[in-house]
Every structure is written in C-alpha cells, then in structure tokens.
TrEMBL record:
Keywords: Coiled coil. This is Uncharacterized protein. It comes from Aromatoleum aromaticum (strain DSM 19018 / LMG 30748 / EbN1). Residues 11-72 form a coiled coil. Residues 262-314 form the PAC domain. It catalyses: 3',3'-c-di-GMP + H2O = 5'-phosphoguanylyl(3'->5')guanosine + H(+).
Length: 740
C-alpha cells in the first residue's frame, strides 16, 4: 500500500505542514500588531483546513486501498499463510482456511501438521527447514486432510514458500497453497486409461489421419507377433491376410465415415505368417472440423473363443464324464419323441437305471475308479440300444434310456433284459475286476403318463421297487408303486421330527460268551411312531442314510447308550461292553472324536465299555484318515469291531493295519449253517482269521441250537441272537444281569 493522497503528498508531509502552521500561529499570537495577527491567522486557518481535508481524503484512500488488498488476499484462488519455524499457522487467508476445512479463527495458532497424514509429517518439516535455510523460493508437494478428522478425504497441494524476517518474531515462512486435487484426479484418470490400454487382453491399435500406426498395446504385440517399433509409422495393411477383397475394405471405411465405427469378423496374418480370425471394432475420433483425426481399432481374437463356445454348447447338453446327453438334452429329445408318438399313435418307453452298490465301490476304491466304471457302463448302455434311442446320464449313478418307438411294453422289457445281460460280464478298472448290475424301472407312454417329468418319476418309482426286490432286475410302473412312493415321502417327513418328538427308543440284545454269561449288548434303535406304531429299522434306516438324518440320529443313539451304561453301573450291575453301530456318513464327521470324548466324560463311564461297530466299506474309504481316527479312538480306550464281516471289499492287508479288536460274522453266513453249503467253511475261515490276527469273534443272528453248537465247536468267542435272547428294554436287560 503506497499511502499517498490525491495531490501526491504523503500523509507525513501533511502532518508536518500542520505542525508548522500551528507554530506560526503561536508566534502570531505573541506579536503586538493585533490586526495583522488576525489577518494572518485567518489565512493560516483557511490553509490549515484545506490541509486537514487533504489529510482526511488521504486516510480514506489509504483505507480503501487496504480493503482492496484484504479482499485480494482473502479471496485469492490460492491459499496464503504465515508459519513459524515449528509450522504453527500465524496468519492465513480465507482460501487457505477453506482448504483446511475450518474457520480462520480456528486455524490460527494450530500446527499445519495437524492436517498432514502421519506418513507425510516428516516431509512437511523437511520443507520448513529448507525454506528457513535456503535462499529464494522452495517448492514441494504435500497431501492434506480436508479437516482435522484423520479419516477425512485427502487433497493434494503444492507448497510454494519463502522465508522472511519480522521484527519481534524472528524468521518466518510465507507459504502459498495451490490445490492440485483436480489435476491429480485428472492425472489418475489418464493413468487409468493408459493402464486399461496397456493391460487390455484385446489388441488395440491407434492410427492417425493418414492411417499410420501411432500406438499399439502389449496385447497387439502378443497377438500379431510384431513389436511396437516394427509397426509404428506403418500402414495397418501389413496385417492383411489376403482373404478379403477391395470391396470388403471399401465397405468398412464407408461405414466408418458414415457411422463413426465398424465391427465385424476379419482374418489377419501374424508376423510368422499364420492366419487367424478375430473380431475387429474400429471407432473414429473426429477433430473440431469433423474430419477423422484418429482411428482406434480393437482386435478380439476369436479362435479360442469359437472353441470355448463349442465346449460350452457341448457342456450345456452333454455329461462331461460319460459324454452322454444330460438332463437338458434328454428333456428336449423326450418332448420330440413323445410328440411324434402322439401324432403316430404309437408307444414310447422310459427306463430309469440305478447302478447297484455303486456308492460302496466309489467309497472303498476311490472316485477315480468310480469315474472309470461309469464311463465303461455308459459304453455298454449305448451298445445295448438302437441308434435313435437316447441314453442319458441323470447324475451320480443314475441313467435314463428313452425309447421313442416301441410296439409294446414287451419290447421295452427286451431292451431292459439286454442291458442286464450286458452288465453280467466283469468290468476291469485300474487293476480291479468289478461286478456291477442295474436296478431298472420302466414306464410307458401313454399308459403310465403323458409328459416327460411324470414318465421319469414313475420309472424312478418302479426302479426303487426293483431295487427293493433284490436288484439286478427290472420292474414296470404300477399305480400301487406310486402310493408306495408317497408313503416313503411321508415317512421321510416324519423321520425329520422323530428325534425332537422323542419317538426313538433303544433296545439291547445281550451278547454271551461260551460259558453262557452276558458280557455285552448291542444297542438297537427302534422307532415308536404315534400313528404307524413300531417302525422297523429296515424301513427307516435306509431313508435316514439317504437324507443325512443318520448323523443326528446316530448322535442320539451314542448319547443314550452312554447314559444307559452309567445308569446300570449306578444300579450296582456288573461292567459290560455296549456296542453301537456307526454309519459311514457319521464316521466321516470331523467332530466324531470330540463328540465321543465329551459323551464319555459327561456320562463318566470307562472308554472300554463303549464299542463302535463299523462296516468294511468304512475302512476302505480314505485309508489314511480312517486309520488316524481309529488310532485316536483306540488311544482313548474305545473298542472297535467290524460288523457284517465277509460281505464287503476289505483286504487282509487293510484289516491288519487297523486297530480292530473284534470281527462280527454276518448273520447271512450263520443263517445258512444248517444248509450244509459253503457257509460253514466261510464261517470257520473267518473265526480262524480272527484268531490269527489276535481278534475276538462274535456271531450274530444265532437262531438255533444247531447253529450255536457249530459255532462253539469252531471256538467262536461270543454269540448274539434269538436263540440266546431277543432284544430287550433297558429294564429287562438289568433284570437279566441281576439274575446271573
């Protein structure tokens, strides 16, 4: 601010002039000539008043100039502030305070570091040290929070600082803050665009107005084999395959001129001469006058895409393992076949096939063997039907055969017989020789149903009847089968609520040693349904295993068995072993070990009083994990027995590698002892095997004195069956123990 009035005199000169006049006025007052004194006073008064007016006007001009400077300072587009050597804000304009997100009064006296992210505080103080130690202006970039809240957004500013000395305050720093946030966002946007360009998996090429290549991305180099240096400045026709004529390119450029873009399939040639197909999209970039300044060409190679599309199309309609039609294609063919049969007034048939005991093979020998078996089965099925018949895989071990033209139901039965016959031959898979069979259900159009879904459902119902009747056979659908299927569904629904309703009961069948003394009991589950009455295990256990309900039901059995052992011990009865059947699904649960440990602790019984009965298929599934779990159970003191021994797939080497204490001879062998067949030899061999492996052996299903005598003669250790005792209630079992 210059501080001058309108006539160019400074305010200091005006003040000096007034003081001079005042002095002369005093001299005049002391003079003897009063008239001259009065005149001179009047003159000087006029002059003094004029000078005073000039002084007032000069002060007003000074204030106006100061206001203009203050407005320019406060409302400048740049933030200004004065900092001391510690970075404390001594002065700041409104723009600077706004950048910091505070009122000016709140900012004064605060350290600028309060707005600086933790990682940049050292950078701020380094900047201040440079300003105070170096001559001239110092520039830097710094991130700042938009408020004192640490989670507030970040803005990027440029610092322009210079040092100066102020009387009484020492060396200070005058700093300008330039907000670079918009520029930073624009730089980030451009960088992102550049990254998208360079990292795109599609080849991108940019040409100028003369159709010269000015830029290509990395994917262009990968696809074409040309480096950027090899193509920059050249015409894109170097990629031409020669498969397109001039009319093709003329129409392409006409579309670009007319619409600003063109898309289509094109054949190009790589640097190595290989011709490939790609989808090309060209966009024109026009200048202000409307002329084409650049063209952006995006190439998407479709050679692999075509192969992938074919693969997707295949997977949408075929099973990838067996290469048979899947459900979707089967539905389409069934709709067509049934529509044709309806027009012609002929019959069609659906065969629902389920591979018998496939789960046992899959679990015991592994999924790889199971997959190879399914592939071989698929080939045999295809060889058993006509070319216009459809063999489809429904999922898992289920197959469906659609016969669109049959003269009678007997013709469908003939096909089912051919399939059963084809499966009679053994199947070699990965060193194993397997024997498998099908349970088959048949439904006929239009006799059993008119639509595909109902035909499949009815054939499924018939298949279950076939499986229940002994497997390896076929059954035609009948109305009573449908009623049976509905009954099974109702049974499943009731089973879901049986545990919470307290409908299950445990019975205990005594186990005797040769002397006739009771040494243990098998816990047997019974279901007392409020409407159905007593539901046998043969009815509900398969349903429980299929639905997964066997796990919570099995947990309930374990818990009640342990509680009952505790109750018998508290009653002063002798120590016995209680065996509990464990399903394969329950044994595979990760928490089984912890569950048994907890139940033993809660019931406070010795681990040796609990015996787990496992089937041979459990041992064959995941040998390492199964062996590890059984070893931990043995360390706890829990005993393990193999149930239904002789009916599964286990080998002697597997049997020796598991901590098994007992073999349980399957009741089918015991039942056939009186027939004089091979059962006696097999039973004797099992007992001898157990003895050689230092295991105890128990025979279940002993029904007659003849069976008991044979088993005792073979040195069988333990016996279980109706000949000795039927399953009894816990109270009755306690009476049997007291009677000994």
């Amino acid at each position: 601010m210059d501080g001058y009035g309108e006539d160019g005199k400074s305010s200091d000169e005006l003040i000096a002039r007034i003081r001079e006049l005042e002095a002369r006025l005093g001299a005049l007052r002391a003079a003897p000539d009063t008239s001259s004194l009065v005149e001179e006073l009047r003159v000087h008064q006029i002059e003094l008043e004029a000078q005073n007016r000039e002084l007032i006007e000069a002060r007003r001009a000074l204030e106006d100039a100061r206001d203009r400077y203050s407005d320019l300072y406060d409302f400048a587009p740049v933030g200004y502030m004065t900092l001391d050597e510690h970075g404390v804000i001594l002065e700041i304009n409104l723009t600077g305070a706004r950048l910091l997100g505070q009122d000016r009064a709140q900012v004064i006296g605060m350290p600028l570091s309060g707005w600086v992210p933790n990682g940049a505080v050292a950078q701020l103080f380094h900047h201040l040290r440079r300003v105070l130690s170096e001559p001239g202006r110092v520039f830097d970039h710094l991130p700042l929070h938009t408020s004192l809240v640490r989670e507030s957004p970040i803005r990027h500013v440029r610092l322009e600082s210079i040092a100066f000395t102020q009387y009484g305050s020492g060396r200070l720093c005058r700093t300008a803050l330039v907000d670079l946030s918009d520029r930073k966002r624009e730089e980030d946007r451009l960088n992102l665009i550049a990254q998208v360009f360079e990292r795109s998996t599609d080849a991108i090429m940019i040409t100028d107005s003369l159709n010269r290549i000015v830029s290509v991305n990395r994917a262009f180099t990968t696809v074409t084999g040309y480096s950027a240096d090899e193509v920059l400045g050249r015409n894109p026709k170097l990629l031409a395959s020669g498969r397109h004529d001039r009319d093709f390119y003329r129409e392409m450029w006409s579309a670009i001129e007319r619409n600003g873009s063109w898309s289509g399939e094109i054949s190009n040639r790589r640097k190595n001469g290989e011709i490939y197909n790609e989808w090309l999209t060209i966009h024109a970039v026009r200048n202000e006058s409307g002329g084409i300044e650049n063209c952006i060409a995006i190439y998407a190679e479709i050679t692999d895409q075509r192969a992938a599309a074919s693969r997707i199309q295949f997977l949408a309609h075929y099973d990838p393992l067996t290469l048979l039609p899947n459900r979707a294609l089967l539905q389409d063919r069934m709709h067509q076949g049934l529509a044709h049969a309806a027009r012609e007034g002929t019959r069609a048939a659906v065969l629902f096939l389920d591979l018998d005991r496939f789960k046992t093979i899959n679990d015991s020998l592994g999924h790889l063997v199971g997959d190879h078996l399914l592939q071989e089965v698929a080939q045999r099925l295809k060889a058993s039907v006509r070319e216009d018949d459809t063999v489809a895989r429904r999922g898992g071990d289920e197959f469906i055969v659609m016969l669109p033209h049959v003269d009678s139901a007997e013709q469908a039965a003939h096909v089912a017989g051919k399939i059963i016959e084809a499966m009679e031959q053994t199947i070699p898979v990965n060193g194993y020789v397997l024997n498998v069979s099908f349970s088959i259900g048949i439904s006929v159009f239009p006799d059993d149903a008119m639509d595909p879904d109902t035909l499949i459902r009815n054939a499924d119902i018939a298949m279950y009847r076939s499986k229940a009747s002994g497997r390896n056979q076929f059954q035609f659908f009948t109305a009573d089968m449908n009623a049976h299927a509905l009954e099974r569904l109702a049974l499943e629904n009731d089973l879901h609520r049986a545990v919470e309703r307290g409908e299950f009961r445990l019975m205990f069948q005594p186990q005797f040693e040769g002397s006739g003394s009771i040494i243990g009991a098998e816990a047997l589950l019974r279901w007392q349904h409020p409407q159905r009455g007593l539901v046998t295990p043969a009815e509900f256990i398969p349903v429980a295993e299929e639905t997964g309900l066997i796990v919570p039901i099995g947990t309930w059995v374990l818990e009640r068995a342990c509680q009952q052992v505790r109750a018998w011990r508290d009653a002063g009865l002798k120590k016995i072993t209680v065996s509990v059947n464990i399903s394969a699904l329950q044994f595979s649960q990760k928490n089984l070990l912890e569950l048994i440990r907890r139940l033993l602790a809660v019931s406070n019984i010795e681990p040796g009083t609990l015996e787990l009965e496992l089937t041979e298929s459990v041992l064959m599934h995941d040998h390492v994990a199964t062996s590890g779990l059984m070893s931990e159970l043995k360390e706890m003191g829990v005993r393990m027995a193999i149930d239904d021994f002789g009916t599964g797939y286990s080998s002697l080497s597997y049997l020796r590698s598991f901590p098994i204490s007992k073999l349980k001879i399957d009741q089918s062998f015991v039942r056939d002892l009186s027939d004089g067949g091979d059962a006696g030899a097999i039973t004797g061999a099992i007992i001898g095997l157990a003895k050689n492996l230092n295991m105890r052996v128990i025979a279940e299903g002993v029904e007659t004195a003849q069976q008991a005598s044979f088993l005792q003669a073979q040195c069988c250790d333990e016996f279980q069956g109706h000949f000795f005792s039927q399953p009894v209630s816990p109270e009755k079992f306690a009476e049997l123990l007291r009677a000994e």
